[in-house]
Amino acid sequence: MIKIPTKVLLVDDEKDFIEMLSLRLKEVGEKITVAYSGQEALDTLEKDNIDVVILDIKMPGMDGIETLREIKKQFPLVEVIMLTGHGSTETAVEGMKLGAFDYLMKPADFDDLTLKLEGARKRKDEQEERIRKAEAKLLVRKSGGIFS
Ligand SMILES: [Mg+2]
Q1: What pLDDT band is residue 49 in, cutting at 50, 70 and 90?
Q2: Does some domain include residue 147?
Q3: Which terminal residue of the chain has fewer beta carbons within 10 Å of its beta carbon, N or C?
Q4: Is pTM, for the whole model, over 0.85?
Q5: CA distances from 144 to 25, 122, 124, 135 (A)
Q6: Ligand 1 centroid to 58 CA: how many Å?
Q7: How many domains is the chain partitioned into structurally?
């Protein structure tokens, strides 16, 4: 079976961490874009078609939670997995209440990460499918079809 790559945006101010993770995710066939700040992440989402954002909570300037709020406001269908350090589980829970799909504790276990990535991608695909179906129904209704 041919794997359709998930378009992932990695957001973290730690360049080494991002480069390492980027390499490993590319190895398993994902399509990776990176951003080093919240603002850069938003700019990237504006121009690239992204499925899932892996978002560091602790960043200088616009932090992860603030970035998450903006992502969910401007790109509600994009799924977000948060990366947290020790002691920021509360922030992770807050993030999930704001619409994040899940969170990972740093240093993230790679298998755990790919599993969560798969789950996030699945949720996005299913939501898009529901929207397509709703739109199709709406079209039928508007054209005076079987539902009128
Ligand atoms: Mg950081």
Answers
A1: very high
A2: no
A3: N
A4: yes
A5: 48, 33, 31, 14
A6: 4
A7: 1
**Can you tell me the distance from the alpha carbon of 79 to that of 59, in angstroms, rounded to the nearest whole number?**
19
Looking up residue 82, the CATH number of its domain turns out to be 3.40.50.2300
139 C-alpha to ligand 1 centroid (Å) = 46
Ligand 1 center to 147 CA (angstroms):
52
How many whole angstroms from 34 Cα to the centroid of ligand 1?
14
Q: Is 81 helix (H, G, I), strand (E, B) or coil?
A: strand
In terms of DSSP H, where are the helices of 2-147? 15-27, 38-47, 64-74, 89-97, 110-142
Residue 115, pLDDT > 70, answer yes
- Provide mean pLDDT across the span 20-47: 97
Going by C-alpha positions, the residue among 74, 59, 79, 71 that lies closest to residue 119 is 79
- Using the mean position of ligand 1's atoms as its centre, give its distance from the Cα of residue 64 in Å: 9
